[in-house]
Amino acid sequence: MGTAWRNLTFVQVFTDEGIIGVGEVRMLNHTDALLGYYQEAVPNHVLGSDPFNVEDLVRRMMRNDYARPDYVMMAGISAIEIACWDIMGKALNLPVYRLLGGAVRDKIKAYANGWYTVERTPAEFHAAARRVVEKGYRALKLDPFGHGFYELDRAEKIRSVELVEAVRDAAGPDVEILIEMHGRFNPATAIEMARLLEPYQPGWIEEPVPPENLAALKKVTEKVNIPVATGERIHTRYDFRELFELQAADIIQPDITYCGGLLETKKVAAWADAYYVLIAPHNVCGPVATAAALHLAACTPNFKIQEHFNDFAEDHVKAAAPGNPEVVDGYFALPKGPGLGVELDLDVVQAHPRRRIFFNLFAEEWHRRQATVDGA
């Protein structure tokens, strides 16, 4: 299904008993690669499997391919694994979180993203932030740094700080502000920007340096006074190992749709808990993956807060699979079952076909989230 800046891939898994499970993933600029992966993986690993045996299914899909698990493979595994949990919940007439250990909280804290698609000025960011708060959110995230890479010139540093200052003024002292850095900076710039932003009391800085170099991340973590979050581009528990051993982050952000699904992400969260690290799952997907994230949040003790884009997206995004609770006073209610609690509306999906788009976080005006079409 197409949107202004992202294509959402929904996966339906059919059983011989007539139960249909649904999963989802947003493959930024790699949708064809995912579809190609499924052409070979589905007949060789998935067809004929018992949907209750997700541990075995994920193990076979990772091991029997021989290739090292990457973004595409893990996304393909994740969407099918999520659909299997949906099947299990429907078969047992229970919400998925009840099958993953049961609820440890009665509501789920949310933060808004995708809300600042306006002119990059303090006045426009101030007005947009006010709209977020008026919508009921008590936390929001922004990347104020334009298309910066490695470093910023003096004027851009000042402008970025002014944008955060405007958002803090609009949101007030009680709303949490989270700073996204999108892996833009070298350690020196990340440290400098974090220090300049300290007066506005951000709840974290996210991906301050590119994700490939955890030693550089540790350098930042040791020299800033703001919590450091990362993990959306880490795709297996094996890759999280080094992050934990280095104690290079305070909050991890695995994406359920890139990390092997619900059970794999819950394992990573449990491992993080041993290091007193919190989990704030990355989520830029539509309603199905949002539902999966809410079920994980409901049953994960070291959960912190859930990212949510879809209150600031086109109406058809939420309409594609209705059933999720709305954000009220900063929180989602626990999801309702059975399964994930949402049902795919194929008519909505088909009315908004996939678009040939390319999204680039290092392009001018990327924050408006209007991707280029057919490379133009």
Automatic annotation (TrEMBL):
PANTHER family: D-GALACTONATE DEHYDRATASE, D-GALACTONATE DEHYDRATASE-RELATED. The lineage of its organism: Bacteria, Pseudomonadati, Thermomicrobiota, Thermomicrobia, Thermomicrobiales. InterPro entries: DgoD-like, Enolase-like_C_sf, Enolase-like_N, Enolase_C-like, Mandelate_racemase_C, Mandelate_racemase_N_dom. Keywords: Lyase. It comes from Thermalbibacter longus. This is Mandelate racemase/muconate lactonizing enzyme family protein. One of its GO terms (molecular function) is lyase activity. Pfam families: MR_MLE_C, MR_MLE_N. It comes from the Bacteria. The keyword Zinc does not apply.
